[in-house]
Amino acid sequence: MLKVYLSGEIHTDWREEIIAGAEGLDVVFSAPVTDHAASDDCGVAILGGEPAKFWHDRKGAMVNAIRTRKGIADADVVVVRFGEKYRQWNAAFDAGYAAALGKSLIVLHGADHAHALKEVDAAALAVAEAPRQVVEILRYVLRGDLPG
Length: 148
Hints:
The structure is a single chain. The protein is α/β, with parallel strands linked by helices. It has a domain at 2-33 and 75-143: Rossmann fold (3-Layer(aba) Sandwich). It has helices at 14-21, 36-47, 53-74, 89-100, 118-123, 131-143, and strands at residues 2-8, 27-30, 77-81, 104-108, 126-128. It is globular and about 55 Å long. The relative contact order is 0.19.
């Protein structure tokens, strides 16, 4: 069984595309909380309110980091998606953390981000532009099957 952590952009359905495409493969997926409001507010919802937005965000980031660190540490493969809508600084951090742990890293982004992410891409074992390519990589890793 391959454990895959799906990190990064939360504004599109790329995770669902990968999960659906990998049906029938021996893969277990995990991911951060993708409900944006829940992710932002988890710290204050659990640990109590904060009058300053900085501390509100910091509490959330720290609670989310517990889940993220566990997911990346337990994964065999980490997929990090960089989307078009926002700059995902957290995705870059996750990619670096995964690389530092020696995890097999797949980076997923469009061609227009290739220059900006060249250092992140250099740490990856594969750079894909579409979720289906990630599925094809997983299929090849597990079964040795080429697309076609």
